[in-house]
Amino acid sequence: MRNAAVSNPAFADELRRLEPEIGQVGPLWLRRLQGAAFERFMTLGLPTPQDEQWRQTSISPIAATAYRRTADRVDMDRRDLDRIPLADLGCPRLVFVDGRFAAHLSRLDGLSAGIRVGSLRDALAERPQDVQPHLGAHANWQDRSFAALNTALFEDGALVIVPRGADLERPLHILHVGSSAGVPRVSSPRCLVLVGEQARISIAETFAAPDGAAYFTNAVTEIVVGAGSEVAHWRVQCDAEQAHHVGALDVHQARDSRFRSLNASLGAALTRNDISVVLDGEGAECTLDGLYVARNRQHVDNHTTIDHARPHAVSHERYKGILAGSARAVFHGRIIVRKGSQQTDAKQSNRNLLLSGDAVVHTRPQLEIYADDVRCTHGATIGHLDEDSLFYLRSRGIGLAEARGVLIHAFAAGALGGLSLRSLREGVETEAAARVDVGASPGEAP
Amino acid sequence: MLKIRNLHANVGGAEILRGIDLDVNPGEVHAIMGPNGSGKSTLAQVLAGRDSYEVTQGQVEFQGRDLLAMEPEERAREGVFLAFQYPVEIPGVSNVYFLKAALNAVRKHRGLPELDAVDFMALAREKMRLVEMEEGLLTRPVNEGFSGGEKKRNEIFQMAILDPRLAILDETDSGLDIDALRIVAQGVNTLRSAERAIVLVTHYQRLLDHIVPDRVHVLVDGRIVRSGDSTLALALEEKGYGWLEEQVAGRGPAGPRP
What is the ipTM of this complex? Predict the structure, then answer.
């Protein structure tokens, strides 16, 4: 192998095996892109703790597992799918099993006319010119090895094209399922969402698998938000307990557009998310909400970057974490205000609730400001359940376990304020509660 | 109903309660008065089960049961209610959710069926009128952004909903203007009954102009140094606490017993 960092035998063997297959299908530009990305990955290698962006997160559990990209498809029927968390949100859905489109599980009735939704692979075969200007243009694979790996290895994913002026009331659900059959699998789902001007859409992108499945998901989603458009993206990772998850979301916003993200990480033994938004037009606004819930020895790392590339843009970032057992969390929030990006308004907060003395949080803001007329604020807190609040609830007859549940739920609920899809919101609340053993829902009316 | 014998309690190693004896019977209203730092609020918190206070000696019996052996929630379910001096703000938890959960925990303990949303709302509306509380406060997070008066009214509203046997009101008059004080006092008077005992913890006489107690006790330096009827409060109003404190100092550690 050309790089010491990919010298781990299991990983290296698989890459050597896959190398002849990479960049062999599709139009010339795609073959070149995938070939270049593979080259780039081999140069970058897997990240190490010496890498500035990976200091607190070791990917050795990923490198040490003999993950395979297998050609054989796993049969999954509707009943198997129904047992997976958050599988049915009551909206049109696209289902991908191990990164491959599963048409028989997908349900696309009820979508408005004009919107194009389907398999990226099919689109690359039929109308590659729609995809070419954007695929790989927003997710930075030159500097990020997992993005390079996804770009080289992806086979399929969702393509969503929303034409100018389209207003989609019903959210779209993109469901990524890991299978549990046979060898541990790596999947590289790749999604591309292109929203024209003055349009509106909400997308739920969820990741889950049957209990006990062992797999590695390395996902990349690129979203282009046209001028004056409004896009919501709710990313919920509810992977199986042994799974490894690396996810990237790269968003490009034009002027006067609004983008609202929820990034919830509930499952997987190891999670790393890179969320990156470029505010590339005046008046653009983004809200990044995050919720991570981890217990036992789970490790969850969120790196976010908000790039204020133009003046008069607004960003709100609120990440919240709940950690039990000996879980570990990393939050790294980078905000860049480019030269000339005057009147920038950026707010960032990261709040953490520790339920055990063994849980650890590393939180770090990184503000790079090259303009002088801006307002940037940031704050981070790490705390325990408030004793006064607990006593107050108990003094009214509410039992200790329920009182703890009520307070934990209230803490988490703050991160879900932008999640307007009720079925998903309730699903996230249930899954989050199950992970910290609480079940109350105090925000609701009686 | 409530029997306190030789109660001693510490906080952070300092002894705050130094031998309290007190009997409260159903239907009675007792006022516990005293200067700042005399241990009034500590007594209220100890009775409610706050674990930051350590009981080092003594017994407390409530309706024949050992109160000190119970968890705070058990005390509440058995019928003890503490109106907090500083009601706690709990963001993200609506007042209505909180109170319904509390009431149903108490009802379950008493062997009563839980109330559904409709019945609970009917009860809540009725009890809110008692303290002239605005209905909008029901759906707001518990005490968050409430004014001082709204918080205190919310405490009495909770008391009305939970229907306790023993209500301890810790400085419920503090921070209230005259109108709010009158409303809160009227609410409390409405809740006086032959089955319920009320203990008012207060620094000032003015609450007792509105709620006339059966007994008044003066707490100085962790002990009850004087007990009497409601005229004792008037004497205190006139003379201040100074004369009692001097008497206690003069008589030495044994002090007078109620």
Answer: 0.94
